[in-house]
Amino acid sequence: MELLFATAIGTLTAAGLYLVLRLRSFPVILGISLLTYAVNLFLFGAGRLALDMPPILRKGVETYTDPLPQALVLTAIVISFGMTAVVVILALGAYLSAREDSVDIDPETDRDEETGT
Amino acid sequence: MNHWIVVPVVLPAVLAAILTLSMRQTPTLQRTVSLAGVAALLAVAVGLTVEAASGAISVYELGNWPAPFGIVLVLDRLSALMVLLTAVLAALVLLYAIGSGWDQRGQHFHPLYQFQLMGIFGAFLTGDAFNLFVFFEVLLIASYGLMIHAGGRRRLKAGVQYVIYNLLGSTLFLFALGTLYAVTGTLNMADMAERAAEIPAGDGALLRVGAMLLFLVFAIKAAVLPLHFWLPETYAAAPAPVAALFAIMTKVGAYAILRMYTLVFGPELGVTANLVDQLLLYAALITLAVGMIGILGSKGLGRLAAFATIGSLGTLLIAISGFREETTAAAIYYMLHSTLAGALLFLIVDMVRERRGADTLVPGSRMAQHGLITALFFGAAIATAGMPPLSGFIGKLLILDAVRGMDAVWLIWAVVLGMSAVAVLGFAQAGSAVFWKPLPDAETTKAPAQAPPVALPMVAACAMLGAIILLAVLAGPVMRYVEATATQLHTPGDYIAAVLGTR
């Protein structure tokens, strides 16, 4: 199980990083999503992998799994969900105002534009 | 338990909700409440600093859960000082934003501003590593909103870059925390420090990986080269008052480095000893060089101010990389100075933009209040470049003096002094182009549609300069405070005892 778990995290991270390095905002957002999946699994694994063990104290149960990483993953999921929503809206706004969705900034076309007014 | 500690986090959170829900339609009320809130925060910050100045470390247990099981907020000298600095900066910048009308150019400026403050205060006060991550996210998500305030093509594109870069930083943060939790089994910083000390030297590999990942995260926030790429375009494209507030955000990264690498991965901890200090030193030297050369090469005032921020961060991190009492004291003093000076520069950039319509470094027509703005720029340039008599000079002198015990002292002196000269040159060049010889009015390229408001923005900018002057005049008492702060930081046992001893 450890091997499968570690491979999954590794694959997700590699794919996510590759996509993040693309120039268009859509693949970049997908890449960030994959990276957050990877990190969620990683956090989950930080509490050691265990099968069929409850995280909450119960009568008649001797062995428990660590509940804290599960709480952390929950927090991380909520935050990354919100962040993904923000970046989607931002990328959409940038696309609609610039009519192209490349992530990099071309100094030549952007130089003349003023910022303050 | 002292409930005032939690006020800097709770008050902005409540205010932000009220501002969004019930005052959206009434700008005047919104402004009044927002200002009143920041003024109250300033008063609380002063009170907290007075309390922390006694040397006691106060701990606030959220929900009354004892550490390390619950989340704690910790008030020591450093966090109190940072809270005070943030409150001062926030009050002046808010005054400027209201006075210049920036807050009405888009929606939800005031709620976002309050959320931003909540995140920053929280990051300074928290004693829990995962909670630090959460407050980082709070301040970042608010900063995304503030950064694209008032919209515009360039701002949105820069915003996308900024968000993506920081999302990657957040992901890295989670990886680091996961690793550290797997090794130490705790997220409370004080508890983590105790557990890390118990790890045998042979088993430290995973701990070193975690410490290094965490360092990378903070280096992104503090814009250490080569992780600085998000900063220049973000700061130059953001609304200038927002960029002025962002001056404290990079310091959050510097603060986190200072906190984690004195408390948890301190110099005494054998497993991670000397892991980051050499790396940080050389990275900081290059950061300083690139920042100051960037000042010389900038084509607009906005970018110039952004590179000045990078340069001053380089200077700050050189001092931090010493990780000993005297360098830490110098670093904290310089941190106070560089935050205020960086913010002042951005306010001046905004005044020029408002009057000229652009901030390019070419001679233009005489602006309204030309003399006053020129004087302010002169003051800010002197402060940032580290010339006497302002606090930048004192800060740099302290750093130069403090690094005498380090191995690379000659290299540090050469780079710091050489780059100060470059900065002076850059500021002189920019200042003479923009301010020295205005073109006659007939050659005006672009006249502003209407005269920008004067009174409040000027008051805010002059007060910022006043704060810098005050920092220089009161250097003695401030130095005594920061020296005590450095001593407190380098005896982490007190912090640990305060957090874990309250069981």
Outline:
Chain A has 117 residues and is an all-alpha fold. Chain A has helices at residues 2-20, 25-46, 68-98, 107-110.
Provide a descriptive summary of the structure in words.
The complex is a heterodimer of chains A (117) and B (503). By secondary structure, chain A is mainly alpha-helical. Helices cover 65% and strands 0% of the residues of chain A. Chain A has helices spanning 2-20, 25-46, 68-98, 107-110. Chain B has a domain at 276-487. Chain B has 503 residues and is mostly helical. The interface between A and B is large, with 40 and 46 residues.
Entry keywords:
heterodimer, A: 117 residues, mainly alpha, Helix Hairpins, 4 helices, elongated, disordered C terminus, B: 503 residues, 19 helices
What is the fold's blueprint, element by element?
The complex is a heterodimer of chains A (117) and B (503).
Chain A: H1 2-20, H2 25-46, H3 68-98, H4 107-110
Chain B: H1 7-22, H2 27-53, E1 58-61, E2 72-75, H3 77-99, H4 109-125, H5 129-147, H6 153-184, H7 189-198, H8 205-221, H9 231-237, H10 240-263, H11 277-297, H12 301-320, H13 325-356, H14 370-385, H15 391-402, H16 409-436, H17 455-473, H18 475-489, H19 492-500
Antiparallel strand pairs in B: 1-2
Helix share bin of chain B: over 70%
- Tell me the total number of β-strands of chain B: 2
Our count of helices of chain A gives 4
Helix content of chain A: 55-70%
Mean pLDDT level of chain B? 89
Number of domains of chain A: 1
User: What percent strand of chain B?
Assistant: under 5%
* Average pLDDT metric of chain A: 84
Q: Any idea what the CATH architecture of chain A is?
A: Orthogonal Bundle
Which two chains form the greatest contact, residue counts included? Answer: A-B, 40 and 46 residues
How many helices of chain B? The count is 19
From the alpha carbons, calculate the radius of gyration of chain B and give it in angstroms: 22 Å
Number of strands of chain A: 0
Q: What's the order of the H and E elements of chain A?
A: HHHH
CATH topology of chain A: Helix Hairpins
Outline of chain B: globular
What oligomeric arrangement do these chains adopt? heterodimer
CATH uppermost class of chain A: Mainly Alpha
Gyration radius of chain A, in Å: 20 Å
Q: First CA to last CA of chain A: what distance? A: 58 Å
In whole angstroms, how far apart are the ends of chain B? 12 Å
